Amino acid sequence: MRIIETALILRNELARLRTGSKRVAFIPTMGNLHDGHLALIKEARAQADVVVVSVFVNPLQFAREEDLQRYPRTLQADCEKLSKAQVDLVYAPAVSDVYPHGLTHQTQVVVPPLVHQCDEPHQRTRLRGIATVMCKLFNLVRPDIVFFGTNDHPRYLTIRRLIRDLNYDIALATIPTAREKTGLALSSCNTLLDADEKKTAPRLYLTLQALADMIRERPSAISESLDNAREDLNTAGFRDISLEICDADDLQDVRVNSEKAVILASVWLGSIRLIDCLHVNLPPAD
What we know:
Helix content: 40-55%
CATH topology of the largest domain: Rossmann fold
Radius of gyration: 19 Å
Number of domains: 2
CATH architecture of the largest domain: 3-Layer(aba) Sandwich
Number of helices: 11
Structural class: alpha/beta
Largest sheet: 6 strands, parallel
């Protein structure tokens, strides 16, 4: 495994590894790797000849400076895990390598209408930052296939549309959300939860499951079900609760002909923002 810090060396190394029409898989990460990342790498290893992982905490997708500074950075431990997982290349650049002209005047990529549908400013910032850094990374790595988890559905739809609209010749692959035994979605920020918060956090997934059951039984009562779920989360100790039920294909309101909905959750627990989602197959309309 080779650890690379600059775009120039990354391009040269990939050119060397691509001989013989080898298939390149790419897993973008922000580090502090967990079993969910390793599951993505295992799947990539099965589908490609060359596996590239990026470890880059992208400043453009953080709305608050304190969140950027708090994000865990564990590059040495990450590289040990990646080596054991038989990754070929690790791209771990400095911010100055990804954004050599600074952040203030950096061209940014907006994927409409997804960004405009987000009520929360931090979500708009996050999706814009994700789209921008993905364009840069896709242009550098030029992968044949890219892998993501499914716990962040707005991110998935953003990248799917980005690939489609900008004519990237990249296959988009996903695997189911990796969870702890408690149901809590694995996240790089889970390590920042204290002991009491770690006990409370699984209530988020339990609430999503209960909400999904209510939607299946009474799809006409979405608004009431959401209000009840928000109240349950508030009582459990979560704050700044964003909980929505949308059509899974476009994040619009669920319609009569919608076949699948997605429950999107973004909540704060202490100083940590947790995100999760749950897909729900809807009963046929009468």
